[in-house]
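The authors assume throughout that readers already know how a fold can be written as discrete tokens. What matters is that the chain and its backbone geometry are given together, residue for residue. A single example would do more here than another paragraph of explanation. For illustration, here is how one protein appears when written out as sequence plus structure tokens.
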Amino acid sequence: MTLSTNCIGAAPTPFTAERINGLSIKKATPFHARKLVDFFRRFEETSFCDWQDEALLKGLLATEHTYCYVAENPTGTIVGAVAGGLMGTRGTINHMAVAPDYRQSRIGTSLANSILSDFRQHGIRRVFLFVEDNNPNALNFWQKQGFAQTRGEITCEVDL
């Protein structure tokens, strides 16, 4: 299922690392690549493919068109993350997960707000993402963030 939102809102403000519930929310760097791969692979619902490895993620995190945020606990363990980027004139959120022990604590909302702020700063006015049909919790979360199911589109993809 594809969800989309108009990314129009108040004037953007530059992101600065924030703290929420004792966690640090900050932009990911290539340094986080290994931890991100390990983190996203823990969640089947993120659809993180086998070919998405540390080298690929390091390269993507070094570009200006990739937006990624992590929530780390005081020991530096990633407990939440969101990753996306620019696709032409639209933004895309490719992966998001929050560790079960940290759900329902506004970390997902903070991560979503961080990446949406980046999109706004870069003039992006529409963002899309995919939610698996059998993941009603994710669908509910993204609808609360202002996303709505896309009508009249069929998603097609191929692994190269």
